[in-house]
Amino acid sequence: MGLDGRGPGPEAPIVASLRTLGVNARTAERLARHTSFKIGGPAGAFVEPADEAEVLLAARVAFEQGIPLMVVGLGSNLLVSDRGFDGIVLSLARACRDVRPEGTRLAAGAGVSLAKVAHMAAGLQLSGVEFAVSIPGTVGGAAVMNAGAHGRSAQDVVQRVRVWDPARGVVVLPGEAMQYAYRMSRAQREAWVVLEVWFDLTPAPRAAIGRTMGDYMGHRRATQPVGEKNAGSMFKNPPGDFAARLIEAVGAKGWQEGGARVSTLHANFMANDGTATARDVLILMRRVAAAVQERFHIGLAPEVRWVGPPEGEDGTTWDNLWLPADDA
Ligand SMILES: Cc1cc2nc3c(=O)[nH]c(=O)nc-3n(C[C@H](O)[C@H](O)[C@H](O)COP(=O)(O)OP(=O)(O)OC[C@H]3O[C@@H](n4cnc5c(N)ncnc54)[C@H](O)[C@@H]3O)c2cc1C
Asked: Cystine design at 300: which of 33, 138, 235, 273 (Cβ 3.0–4.6 Å)?
């Protein structure tokens, strides 16, 4: 099926190239199945390699043939276009799954869930990744997004990373090479595939680590719409303030567009009632951002990452979406 759902389309050659090289690729895989928002059209090719060699092969094919490539983790920070992604979507869920202790460090494959890393660290009486226990993502996604909670984030614990870089192949880089900032890393600007991450941890009693993780999980259940289809925080916190506070202050809790609604529990979350499209979410984000801009003169920047054609679904581009509606 083509991206428009009308038979063989431009993605077929991608899938054919990959299959010729022995990489198993699926066509017309709906990305809604691979995101926590449960929104998103088809991938040109969806590849879930069995091992790292196949990951590298798929990445090289994409690079050499000029095919857009994106890696998907648990898809918990993504808003995928209803038109999908006309390129290769690479999932490391099967290939990068090892976790091994190295002294007080833990080396984890990019496809491993953060919860698994946190629980393994606790079992080894190693402290440092408790904050990650209830962030619903993979090690790769956390390293790229600089995911964080409870005052800590990936940048505090990522000691080094092993990445595939189109120009250099597989390289091991120190954590500083990620150039971390709030929910930002160099990996968001480079065409890197993160393969493995080393976390620097500190010995601590297991009971204390367990207590902290329990507190964090309880806090999340109490403050976030667990069980609803969402992508976590939609907007980054502006310096010195909280996006949720600003959104709540403009009265946006409960605002709805199609099947998308601003959460009534956490104003910086949006929930999909099962029928929402990416277009619904984009319009709602634009409305919320415009209201905050008008009242507080603060431009909210998206935390969620857009996947799809740059022009967005409502005719605006992802970049000018954040201007007040009248100026865009
Ligand atoms: C209910 C809920 C609560 C959340 N709470 C938090 C929170 O407290 N703190 C927080 O920071 N975030 C939070 N998030 C957002 C999200 O969980 C994090 O951003 C997480 O790190 C994303 O990981 P992922 O594996 O799902 O990545 P994805 O969403 O799949 O991908 C995110 C980005 O990383 C890239 N990427 C992923 N893996 C790789 C890789 N191996 N190599 C190269 N690029 C890669 C993707 O291409 C994409 O650009 C929450 C989300 C939800 C749904």
From this structure: 235
- Tokens for 294, please give them: 């008008």
Ligand 1 centroid distance, CA of 308 (Å): 17
Q: What is the pLDDT along the chain (328 residues), one digit of tens a residue?
A: 333 333 344 446 788 888 888 888 999 899 999 999 999 999 999 999 999 999 999 999 999 999 999 999 999 999 999 999 999 999 999 999 999 999 999 999 999 999 999 999 999 999 999 999 999 999 999 999 999 999 999 999 999 999 999 999 999 999 999 999 999 999 999 999 999 999 999 999 999 999 999 999 999 988 888 889 999 999 999 999 999 999 999 999 999 999 999 999 999 999 999 999 999 999 999 999 999 999 999 999 999 999 988 766 666 666 655 544 343 3
Q: Hey, whose CA ends up nearest to atom 35 of ligand 1?
A: 141
Position 169, amino acid: G
Give the residue whose CA is nearest to atom 19 of ligand 1.
Answer: 77
- Side chain identity at residue 80, one-letter code: V
Q: Where are the alpha helices (DSSP H) in 21-171?
A: 52-64, 114-123, 139-145
**Which residue in the block uniquely carries the two structure tokens 């946190």?**
118
What pTM value is reported for the model?
0.92
